[in-house]
Amino acid sequence: MSERVVAAAEEGQVVELRRSGRRPRAVANGVRAAAILVALVVLAVFPLVFSNPAVTTIAFFTLVFMTSTTAWNGFAGYSGYIPLGHAVFFGTGAYTLAIVAQDLHMPGGYGVFWLVPLAGAAALVVAIPFGLIALRTRRHTFVVITIAIFFIFQLLSFNLGITQGSSGIQTPTPPWFGGAFNIPFYYVGAVILVLSIAVSWFIRRSRFGLQTLAIRDDEDRARGLGVQVGRVKLVGYVISAIPVGMVGALYAYFIGQIFPQSAFDPLFDITIALMAFLGGLGTVSGPLLGALVLEPLQQYFTVSDPSYYLIAYGALFLIVILALPRGVVPTVGAWIGNRRARRAAPSPAAAGEASGGAPGGTRYAATVRSGE
Amino acid sequence: MALLEMEDVRKSFGGLQALSACSLEVEEGSIAGLIGPNGSGKTTLFNIVTGYERIREGAVRFRGTAITNSTPERVFALGIGRTFQLTRIFTRLSVVENMLVATQRHEGWLRSVLRPAGSASEHRRAMELLDFVGIARLADAPAGTLSYGQRKLLDLACVLVADPSVILLDEPAGGINPTLIGLLAQRIRELNRQGKTFLIVEHNMEFVMSLCHRVTVMDFGKTIVSGPPDVVRSDRRVLDAYLGTEEADGDEAP
Lengths: 372, 254
Ligand SMILES: Nc1ncnc2c1ncn2[C@@H]1O[C@H](COP(=O)(O)OP(=O)(O)OP(=O)(O)O)[C@@H](O)[C@H]1O
Ligand SMILES: [Mg+2]
Description:
Number of helices of chain A: 17
Number of strands of chain B: 10
CATH architecture of the largest domain in chain B: 3-Layer(aba) Sandwich
Strand content of chain A: under 5%
Mean pLDDT of chain B: 84
Number of strands of chain A: 2
Helix content of chain B: 25-40%
Order of helices and strands of chain B: EEEHEEHEHHHHEHEHEEHH
Order of helices and strands of chain A: HHHHHHHEHHHEHHHHHHH
Low-confidence stretches of chain B: 246-254
Oligomer: heterodimer
Mean pLDDT of chain A: 80
Radius of gyration of chain A: 24 Å
Number of domains of chain A: 1
Structural class of chain B: alpha/beta
Helix content of chain A: over 70%
Bound molecules: adenosine-5'-triphosphate, magnesium ion
Shape of chain A: globular
CATH class of the largest domain in chain B: Alpha Beta
Number of domains of chain B: 2
Largest interface: A-B, 44 and 60 residues
CATH topology of the largest domain in chain B: Rossmann fold
């Protein structure tokens, strides 16, 4: 056996990964580009094909949650910090649109949509102090702090004059009616979603994203390699708040009236976290898939029997955590990868397993040999 | 003036005095060794220099400027790199991604958000360094699949990416096989010839004595002897320090 083969056999699965990854890369890129194109076309024509208002309503809510979970995952999935207070940004966005539209006496119409970016900016402004406080802590403490801050905001929205307490605020009534009512909301939601996905994808590829992932793996070591962890975490957190604020505003305009309990809803974070966990935390497509499956289900349950869906959600959360801890997308990805690898190179896998158990053995020799 | 100076550093954890009156100087361009029995405070001293632990007494200076109680980020930006005793890498990133985390010592946050990770030249540099330590073949592998020795090499390569002027290695030869130890020593010498300064904590005496220009011995949180390897090797106090803990070591050993 030649030296290279010996080295390969000793490296086991590592070699397989590379071998299976190289040649199909161009093909995979092509497939991915085609899939994105198809998805965009489906997104664009969906309400034209399925114009039934009951369907487009579900589609609209699905867009809201796809956006929220994508944004949330852009922080939580990449950094490993699990915030459960993003409903604060949803509520901030919703109230920003409602209050500004009311104060300016804005008539219903397309003009109100211009308040959506403003709501995103409001979420950004709120996220800075929120993040500065919560991100001083790590792990479980961080989760608890975000929940605590969420409840502070909910309480404030019940009691502050500006939010008009539990009587809520009316948003302007759009002048368009009937079967086409949902359409403008749908398309604004679709634009926000596409932008959010683009941002999430862009972050994943940037050095900033790489540093965020490094924080997830070992925050202290990242600091030792010069990653300004405080800044990276805060920027990631704030970026994740903006789309959530925007869809909060869109939601307020769509619903027509905003209340503290619907704007600052504790179930909001549970829902987007479940969507991300189900599809695959830290992947771009996972949370989208999660929302695409769960939100229509939830809407269906809410309409048919509202008491069931909470139980169903709880049960599903348990199943996901126990059976698919990494989520659907990574699990399926690994499964396909393994199958491909097994087909490509059956013998090195066995050799790799045999030598993998004993650190300090022959595997290093291979390394040294190739290094010289 | 020494490149890196620790002067009279003291540190206690609760009631335990981990460091008392610890002084050490590392000359520019040298390979300095730091040895001592288990628990004598070597890692604690590294943590203090690199900003992971804070002190109330003592001073740390780099090129004559005080860096006492700085943060790890700032210490790294000044050009001091370190590895950890229990090797730490980013297990869920690929090997080459591990290398790209650290490539820019000074980069604004907006720039880091807007730029894709790793320009062509950074990639080339990362691959060169991986090749230098002998794991270039594994560039695309998830770092979590590396063996222990390969992790140590990756850890070293990561530190080299940003071109630090001083490198602190905490037990680089611990738990790796003799062939690899040979490669490691050779690489350290080569880097030293290129002008890099090293401070190395290591229990492998052969490794330390053959590599280092100057060796400092610690015992019970104090630096007790410092000098060329030959002198240190035959110093009475060093023998005492090691013989005194020989029994305790024997108890702990698996
Ligand atoms: N964070 C900490 N909290 C409490 N005690 C600590 C802490 N870090 C170190 N110590 C104690 O300080 C002393 C010095 O530890 P240190 O790790 O610096 O020793 P070392 O010389 O690196 O030993 P080794 O050769 O085993 O790595 C030990 O008694 C250790 O138990
Ligand atoms: Mg130590």
